[in-house]
Amino acid sequence: LGRISDVEKTITMSFKNANSIVLMIGERKNELGGSLFYDIHNELGANVPTPDLDEAKNQIYAITDCIDQNLFYACHDISDGGIAVTLSEMTFGKNIGLDVHIDGVISLEKILFSETGGFVVEVNNKKIQKVENILTGYKLSYSNIGKTTSAPEIKMNGVIDISLDDARELWSNGLRNKLK
Questions:
Q1: Which contacts of 49-56 are long-range, i.e. CB under 8 A and separated by 24 or more positions?
Q2: Single pTM value for the model
Q3: Per-10-residue mean pLDDT, the chain, length 180
Q4: Shortest CA distance to 118 belongs to which of 37, 62, 167, 44?
Q5: At what angle do helices 82-92 and 164-172 cross, to 10 degrees?
Q6: Angle between the 53-68 and 128-137 helix axes, to the nearest 10 degrees?
Q7: C-alpha span between 81 and 141 (Å, rounded)
C-alpha cells in the first residue's frame, strides 16, 4: 500500500549491502493468536493481531516518503511468521547475512514470532538521521535492531544462529514439516 511517485525508485525486500543498519518499525506485541508459530505447536492462542489503523497509515506514509527520498535499500512487512521470518526472507535474495537483537518486555518467542504488523528496513549508515527524522515526524515507534553482515548467516537474539543455506533449505522445503 502507498503511492510511489516514481516507479524507478521502488525497492525489493532483499538486503542489498553488508554493514547496513536494520530498523524495525512498530513494536512487537503479545499477538500470536492464530499464528504460524502456534499452528506448528498445535495451539490456537487468544491474542490475534489488532491493527491500529492510524499507526498503519503513518507507517505507510513514512515508508513511502523514505522510499521517495532513496533512504532505504530494502523494506519488508512483518506478517506471517513474525519478524524472525521477515528477517530471514530478507537475507535469501542476495545472500546478505544479519546480526540483530530485538528487545522487548514479552517472551522471546513472542518477540520473534508475533504477527503484529510493522516493517523491517535496511538503511545506509549515512542516511539514518534522515530516516529517523521522518519516522519521528510521523510519531512512529522504531528500533535499531542490528546490521546486515557479509557472513552468510542469520543471528537473532543469541538464540538463532543458522547458515543462510540451511535456513533457505528449511524455508524452501517445508519449515513446518522440519519443526514437527
A1: 49/114, 49/115, 49/116, 49/117, 51/117, 55/26, 55/140, 56/117
A2: 0.89
A3: 73 96 94 72 74 93 94 95 93 96 92 92 97 98 98 96 91 62
A4: 62
A5: 110
A6: 150
A7: 21
